[in-house]
Write a structure and sequence with these properties.
Layout lengths: L13 H10 L5 H15 L3 H32 L14 H13 L1 E3 H8 L3 H19 L4 E8 L2 E7 L1 H4 L4
Antiparallel strand pairs: 1-3, 2-3
């Protein structure tokens, strides 16, 4: 053993120990363990490389989001007379019902939507926020907005963003 070596102690189950002593001869066990550790370390990525990759991924995601935003703005300018399909931001029937209700009434409070869906208002709020976030990420602007003040007789309500959907009803 060289001077710069370190001693490592490990607990292993009785079953693994018996298999280890059965397969590896007494003089070779130290080498076997050292080689096993080296092989495992070769397969395990280094934390600094992972951190660097995560940082690069964040940069790429931000740049991709900007590109999507620019493309959506270009599409909105190019196809200004077309409607945006609000249901494209829905993941299930509950989201579709929320969008349908908002389209019909032009806006609604979270408790109104919860009563309509016969659901918990926190679940409805979570769904509204997901729709808002998904549309903002895809279009650069959200298709629904929350307004805390009073508007059309409702306070603290969610509204369809007329500017984005360009409805001609």
């Amino acid at each position: 053993m060289s001077d710069n070596s370190r001693v490592v102690t490990a607990k292993i189950s009785e079953e693994v120990y018996k298999e280890f002593t059965l397969r590896i001869s007494e003089g070779e066990r130290g080498n076997f363990i050292r080689e096993a550790i080296s092989e495992k370390l070769q397969k395990t990525p280094r934390p600094d490389k992972i951190l660097a990759l995560e940082e690069r991924m964040d940069i790429l995601e931000n740049e991709l989001e900007q590109v999507r935003k620019y493309l959506s703005e270009l599409e909105l300018l190019t196809f200004a007379h077309c409607k945006i399909d609000l249901h494209s931001f829905c993941i299930d029937e509950t989201d579709r019902k929320i969008i349908d209700y908002l389209m019909h009434y032009k806006g609604a409070t979270t408790p109104e939507l919860a009563e309509y869906l016969k659901s918990n208002r926190w679940i409805v709020l979570n769904r509204l926020q997901k729709i808002q976030k998904a549309s903002k990420k895809k279009l650069g602007k959200s298709v629904i907005d929350y307004y805390g003040g009073e508007r059309a007789g409702k306070k603290k309500a969610w509204w369809i963003n007329q500017e984005v959907i360009n409805e001609d009803e």
